[in-house]
UniProtKB/TrEMBL annotation:
Protein known as: Efflux transporter outer membrane subunit
Phylogenetic classification of the source organism: Bacteria, Pseudomonadati, Pseudomonadota, Gammaproteobacteria, Pseudomonadales
Residues annotated as signal peptide: 1-22
Annotated family: Belongs to the outer membrane factor (OMF) (TC 1.B.17) family.
Subcellular localization(s) per the UniProt record: Cell outer membrane
Keyword Membrane on entry: yes
Originating species: Pseudomonas benzopyrenica
Amino acid sequence: MTPFLRLPTLTLALLLAGCTLGPDYQRPTTTVPVAYRHAEGWQAAAPKDLEMRSDWWRRYDDPTLDRLMVQLNQRNQSLAQAEATYRQSLALVSQARASLFPTLSSSLGATRSGRGGGSGSNTVIRNSNGTSGTFSSGGTSTISNAYDASLGVSWELDLWGRVRRQVEADRATAQASAAELAATRLSLQTQLATNYLQLRVLDAQQRLLDATVSAYERSLRLTQNQYRAGIVTPADVAQATTQLKSTQADAIDLRYQRAQLENAIAVLVGEVPANFQLAAVKTIPELPPLPSAVPSTLLERRPDIAQAERQVMAANAAIGVAEAAYYPDLTLSASGGYSASQWGSLVSTPNRFWSIGPSFALSLFDAGLRRAQVESAEASYDASVAGYRQTVLDGFREVEDYLVQLRTYGEEAGVRQEALDAARRALQLAENQYQAGLIGYLDVVTLQTTALSNERTNLTLLGSRLSTSVQLIAALGGGWDGNVTPPAPPRRP
C-alpha cells in the first residue's frame, strides 16, 4: 500500500478513536415558583389573545406608536450596533468550524540569485541551456535561476475535541449575542413606548391646565367686576390673580417636560430632534388587558435569561478546550511539487518532489500553565452559573414588582376617582354659594386648587399605570419567541 493510500486509513482510525474532553452541558438548576405571588387581580387578556406577541405594543391601539416602532426597528443606532456585534459572533463560529477541515495551500515562485564577485574586467558567457556566468580578472561571480511549484495539505486532527469544544463555545456565544440583540431591541421598544405614553399623558395635563387657565381668567374677570361694584375686597382679586398666574406657570413647565420626551423619542427612532415633532392629540391610549403567563415560561421568554444561560454553555465548553491542552496535537501533512533551475523543464519527473507524514506536538513542562488555565475555565463557569441564577431571580422579582404595582395602582385609581368626584361636587357647591354671596372667594380658591390637584394626580396615576404595564410586558419577555439562532440580520449602510 502506497503512502497516499495509507493516509486515509490512518486518519479514519484516529478519528474513530478520538474523544471530546470536558463536561457536557446541563442547564443549571434554579427554583421556579408554581405561580406568581401577586398575580391575584391581574387584568388578563381575553381568551382569544392570551399569548404574547412580538408586536406587543399594538395592545395600546395607537397608530402613531405603531409607526414609531417601525422606525425604531429600522433606524435606531444602538440596535444597529447590536446587530453588527451579532454578525461578528456568527463570523467567529465560522472561523472556529474551519479548523475542523484540512488546509490546502499552493505556491508558485521564481528566484534569481548570485554568489561571489571581484574587481577587474568582466566577461559574460551565456550557455546554451539558458544559464549564464560572469567572470572577472579579480574573481568569479555566478548567477542562477530557480523555479518551483508545489501543493500542500495540512490537517490537525481533533482527537481530543478541542476544536469541537471551541466551536461549541463560539456557537453558544453567538446565541448569547442573538439573545442580547433581542434584549437590546426589547429595551429600546420599552423606552419608546414608555416615553410616548408619558408624552400623551402630558398632552392631557396640558389640555387640563389650559382649560383651567381659561376658567381662572373668567373667575378673575368676575372678581374684578365684583370689586368695582364694591361686593368683594382687593384680597379676593389678589387671590384670583395668584391662582391664575400659578396655573399658567404650571402649564408653561409642562411644555419643557414634553419637549424632553419628544427629543428622547426622536433619538430612539434615529431622527435629529430639531427635525422631529409629534402633534398633540386629544386621547390617551387605554390600559390594555395583559397576557397571562406562568413562571416556568419566563426562562425561555426573557432574552436576558437566555443570554445568561448561553454564557454558561460557552464557559462549560471552554473547560474542554483548556483540558485538551494536556494531550498531544496530531497534524497530518502532505506536500508535493516540482523544482528546477529552468522554467521549460520544471514539470518533469526528475524535478518532482513529495513528502508525507504525521507530527505530534506536546508540551512536556509548562510550570503549571495548563492546570491554571483549566482552573480559570472552571472558575469562569462557576461565575457564569451564579450570574445565570441571579438573572433568573431578578426576572422573577421584576415580574412580581410590576404585578403588585399594577394591582396597587388599580386600587388607588378607584379611591382617587372617588376623591376627584367629591372635589368636583364640593367646588360646584362653593361656586354657587360664592355667586349667592354666602361665602368668600378664598373658600372657592381652596376648593378649585383641591379639584385641580386631584385632576392632575389622576392623570399622573394613569401615566404610572401605563408605564408599569409596559414594564410588565417587557419583564415577561415582550413577546420574544425564545429563538437564539435567528437568521443573520442584513448589513446596514
